[in-house]
């Protein structure tokens, strides 16, 4: 084993910065206490090739954090004089140790899919989300019926459950809404292979908010954040005209085209139609007599 001298920088009682090397060393100390405990500071130093001062520093921090505790030796092990302090991992320390629960969960879901079919996985995903939905429903009811206010209440509830949720207004004019973002997903590893978890959550958001929401990005899909668009205001008058669309949001049905009057190819008044790309096409009215030399459609790119 190669010996790396300890850096002088240390973690203090108020959470001062700790170097990556020291953090890794402290993790090694915790893992060895877990595997070999009860273990003394001297034994830790010999096995990890650390100085006595370094071992004591790491043990002091781990004790203060509640990750390890001193072990009281049994009467049979007590000899003459004061016995050396020995340490074991506490219940909280075991929780801090890494566990491969994500892989285990995926294995269980694969087994469920193989033995009961993909529908069973989807049923489980909906059942899991239903528990959260039931808890959030009462809280969102207090926010009233406005989708924007209900979204803010949902963000607060999600953040309290560790989803690191935020919200910001997006869009302009005819189509406006709130972009709900989740910076953390507790089931990301499983959802990467089983998108039913994302679909169940999206459906629950629609029911909770009372509007049809649109999932734009997911952590499970490789994005840096889960993003959901929540429409909050679409004036009825805008449904017959082209509506500005929030970035990354598909235009709703009925807003893709609008018509107005304009000058047609023959130089007389005709009908102008604008599609979702912004392309305007002016055609003569059916009653207009066409000029053979100009008997074609006049297309203006990018006009409105």
Automatic annotation (TrEMBL):
SUPFAM superfamilies tied to this protein: Winged helix' DNA-binding domain
Region (Disordered): 1-24, 244-304
Comp. bias regions, Basic and acidic residues: 8-24, 292-304
Compositionally biased intervals (Polar residues): 280-290
Compositional bias of kind Low complexity: 268-279
InterPro entries: ArsR-like_HTH, Carb_Metab_HTH_regulators, WH-like_DNA-bd_sf, WH_DNA-bd_sf
Stretches that traverse the bilayer: none
Pfam family, one: HTH_20
Protein name per its UniProtKB record: Putative ArsR family transcriptional regulator
Originating organism: Humibacillus xanthopallidus
Source taxonomy: Bacteria, Bacillati, Actinomycetota, Actinomycetes, Micrococcales
